[in-house]
Structure formats: C-alpha cells, structure tokens
Amino acid sequence: MYRDPEAASPGAPTRDVLLVSAIVTVSLSATVVLCGLCHWCQRKLGKRYKNSLETVGTPDSGRGRSEKKAIRLPTGGKAVNTAPVPGQTPHDESDRRTEPHSSVSDLVNSLTSEMLMLSPGSEEDEVHEGCSRENLGRIQFSVGYNFQESTLTVKIMKAQELPAKDFSGTSDPFVKIYLLPDKKHKLETKVKRKNLNPHWNETFLFEGFPYEKVVQRVLYLQVLDYDRFSRNDPIGEVSIPLNKVDLTQMQTFWKDLKPCSDGSGSRGELLLSLCYNPSANSIIVNIIKARNLKAMDIGGTSDPYVKVWLMYKDKRVEKKKTVTMKRNLNPIFNESFAFDIPTEKLRETTIIITVMDKDKLSRNDVIGKIYLSWKSGPGEVKHWKDMIARPRQPVAQWHQLKA
C-alpha cells in the first residue's frame, strides 16, 4: 500500500500542532513578563499591547543679609557663614502543499513583533521609566569636624537639575541649614537667581560645638525657591545623621533631593474650572470647592478663602478673591472671576490660585497654591491645554495644593 511520506504517523504531532504550541509558549512567556511588573506597569503595558495587536491586525542675591553669619546655639556652639571657599484552525494535507501555513505564520510574526517591543531597551525601559519617582535634582555638600577648635564645618557647594518652580520655567534656589532636632536656629545661603544648576560654595562654621553633641545631631538641608511676593516654595530636602559620618576629615556627598516632609498631599485639594473665550479674549476662573484642607488654627480647623492672581511674564496684573468660609475644611465657594487675556499673551500668562486661612489676630496663613500655565506641573498643564482645546466650555479639574 502506498503511504504518503509526508503524512503524519498516528500519535505524532503535526506541524500545525507544533506551531500552535510554540505560539502558546510565546504567549505564556509574555504573560510571565507582564506579571513580573508592577500593577501600574501591567495596566500601561496591557493597554499598549492591546493597541499594538490591533494595529498589526489592522543673577545672585543675599536678600539683604550679610555674607557672614553667627548664631549662638543651645549647646554653647556658634555658627558662622564664611566667605565662599554634580488562534488558527489546521489545514488539511492538500492545503499544506499549496498554502504553507500563511495564517499561522502571520500570527507568529505578529506575536514576535510584540515580543520585540517588550525586549530590553525599548518598551520595558519606557514603562519602568514611568514608574520612577519625580526627579527633584541633587545637591553637593561637605561636612567635617575640627577637634582642636571644636568646630563643625558644613560647605554647601552646588545643586543640579532642580525643578522649575516659577511660571517663567526656572527657580531662584537657596539652602537652609539646620542641626536637628534644633529647628529654631538656622543658616541660609544666598539666593541664586533664575538658576536650576546653582553654585553656592558657601562655608558654615559651628564653633565651640563639642564632638559628643555633634554626633547627636542630624544635618538637615532644605532647598527652597525664593519668592519675593509670597511664601518660599520648598524644592527638596536631605538629612544625614552625623553619627554615621567620618568627621575626622571633610567628607563630600552627592545626595538626591527628596520631597519635603510637609508635602503638598496633606494640604488638601481644590476643584476649579477654566473657560476660555477667544472671541472675547477672556478666561473665566470658577472656584468651585475644596476638600481635606489642612487645619491651620489651634482648634483643628481653618477659615479658608481663595485668592486668584493673573500674572503676565513677571508682573502681577490683577487680583480677585472669594469670601471667607468660617471653620470649614471642605468649603464650597462657587465663585467665578473673569480676566481679560488676549490670545497672543496666553503663553506668557499664569494664573496663581492661593488658598488662604483668614486670621484676625495675626498674618493670614497660606494653606496651598496652584500655578496654571503652559509651563506648570503635568496636571496643571493638562488643565490649561484642555481649556484651550475646548473654547467656550468650562473645563473642571481637581488640583493638589502645593506648599
């Protein structure tokens, strides 16, 4: 009897079965890769994976302070700032001779393309980059102790890649120096105007400071953005216990800045809407409501109101404010303000929203702020662009208040 040499023997796997098995193996491998990632990455990759399959299928200032500073510390020491010193159905055998697995091959090719997208150096790297924390820059400083003179020396050298805190796309950074737990006494560097990579090269001496006291302290550095009109904006902080440092000689450190301990998340949120009318050259800002505001008063509450500033370049053009809501951490305002803004000036315009706590006996406290412009944070920029893309329509969005 004639037997076709290409016919499969009983029980032997066919080519289709082998190919489908290979496809299943590749799919399982992709699943393992996805399962190993964080939940956020899985969601992001899953969305991109699905879309891909569908595609295949279809100047300096010291602010008036002197360059040298000295304070008397509770321990008896003195601090001095000295002068400046980085799925397929199998074919029958006749089909195999004429059409060698065209559909199966296409599916294999598509899956192979998807696996290449997940290979190191491409999609996976991009996804994990999205998982990384916000970059606040880094700071370089030195610290050492002179045993003969009982003096702790701290040098603030420079910072790199600081984030822009001003609507102009830059910052005016300076550094505060503390020896925790004492926060009452502090020293400060000069302000470096419009500089995201500042060089200070300033030296601070804590004189008459016994070594046994020094090793009980934590060196705390806070980088801030100087603001002439309102509260300075925190950029980031670094803390280093001095008992973990070899103080017998000057040690130089590069430290990544971390979010400041009084972060914006604890200050509450504000819901507001923006409506741009290009024919009238105006923006209507509607302050709707706030939630979970930070308590600024001793009684565990606040008396909030909202200030709205229209800024053009570096100048304040116009200010509006809401009524004050007494003893309310979740106030509802529903107040609208109109500002005249020509279309050609939109890119240089910033709207600053400041939530304040009213105080009769002392200066009003800032609870938090929001900067709305082309150059603000991701959430603020999204709101601004949505406003431009949907003219004459109120666009509402929640915003986290920032310090």
From TrEMBL:
<keyword id="KW-0968">Cytoplasmic vesicle</keyword>
<dbReference type="GO" id="GO:0005544">
    <property type="term" value="F:calcium-dependent phospholipid binding"/>
</dbReference>
<feature type="domain" description="C2">
    <location>
        <begin position="135"/>
        <end position="255"/>
    </location>
</feature>
<keyword id="KW-0112">Calmodulin-binding</keyword>
<dbReference type="GO" id="GO:0030670">
    <property type="term" value="C:phagocytic vesicle membrane"/>
</dbReference>
<dbReference type="InterPro" id="IPR035892">
    <property type="entry name" value="C2_domain_sf"/>
</dbReference>
<dbReference type="Pfam" id="PF00168">
    <property type="entry name" value="C2"/>
</dbReference>
<dbReference type="GO" id="GO:0006906">
    <property type="term" value="P:vesicle fusion"/>
</dbReference>
<keyword id="KW-0472">Membrane</keyword>
<dbReference type="GO" id="GO:0005516">
    <property type="term" value="F:calmodulin binding"/>
</dbReference>
<keyword id="KW-0576">Peroxisome</keyword>
<keyword id="KW-0268">Exocytosis</keyword>
<dbReference type="InterPro" id="IPR001565">
    <property type="entry name" value="Synaptotagmin"/>
</dbReference>
<dbReference type="GO" id="GO:0001778">
    <property type="term" value="P:plasma membrane repair"/>
</dbReference>
<dbReference type="GO" id="GO:0001786">
    <property type="term" value="F:phosphatidylserine binding"/>
</dbReference>
<dbReference type="GO" id="GO:0005509">
    <property type="term" value="F:calcium ion binding"/>
</dbReference>
<dbReference type="GO" id="GO:0051050">
    <property type="term" value="P:positive regulation of transport"/>
</dbReference>
<dbReference type="InterPro" id="IPR037732">
    <property type="entry name" value="C2A_Synaptotagmin-7"/>
</dbReference>
<dbReference type="GO" id="GO:0048791">
    <property type="term" value="P:calcium ion-regulated exocytosis of neurotransmitter"/>
</dbReference>
<feature type="domain" description="C2">
    <location>
        <begin position="266"/>
        <end position="399"/>
    </location>
</feature>
<keyword id="KW-0106">Calcium</keyword>
<keyword id="KW-0597">Phosphoprotein</keyword>
<dbReference type="GO" id="GO:0005765">
    <property type="term" value="C:lysosomal membrane"/>
</dbReference>
<comment type="subunit">
    <text>Homodimer. Can also form heterodimers with SYT6, SYT9 and SYT10. Interacts with calmodulin (CALM1, CALM2 or CALM3). Interacts with CD63; required for localization to lysosomes. Interacts with APP.</text>
</comment>
<dbReference type="GO" id="GO:1990927">
    <property type="term" value="P:calcium ion regulated lysosome exocytosis"/>
</dbReference>
<keyword id="KW-0449">Lipoprotein</keyword>
<dbReference type="GO" id="GO:0017158">
    <property type="term" value="P:regulation of calcium ion-dependent exocytosis"/>
</dbReference>
<comment type="similarity">
    <text>Belongs to the synaptotagmin family.</text>
</comment>
<dbReference type="GO" id="GO:0005778">
    <property type="term" value="C:peroxisomal membrane"/>
</dbReference>
<feature type="transmembrane region" description="Helical">
    <location>
        <begin position="20"/>
        <end position="41"/>
    </location>
</feature>
<keyword id="KW-0770">Synapse</keyword>
<protein>
    <recommendedName>
        <fullName>Synaptotagmin-7</fullName>
    </recommendedName>
</protein>
<dbReference type="InterPro" id="IPR037741">
    <property type="entry name" value="C2B_Synaptotagmin-7"/>
</dbReference>
<keyword id="KW-0564">Palmitate</keyword>
<dbReference type="GO" id="GO:0030276">
    <property type="term" value="F:clathrin binding"/>
</dbReference>
<keyword id="KW-0479">Metal-binding</keyword>
<keyword id="KW-0458">Lysosome</keyword>
<dbReference type="GO" id="GO:0030100">
    <property type="term" value="P:regulation of endocytosis"/>
</dbReference>
<keyword id="KW-1003">Cell membrane</keyword>
<dbReference type="GO" id="GO:0030424">
    <property type="term" value="C:axon"/>
</dbReference>
<dbReference type="GO" id="GO:0050796">
    <property type="term" value="P:regulation of insulin secretion"/>
</dbReference>
<feature type="region of interest" description="Disordered">
    <location>
        <begin position="53"/>
        <end position="105"/>
    </location>
</feature>
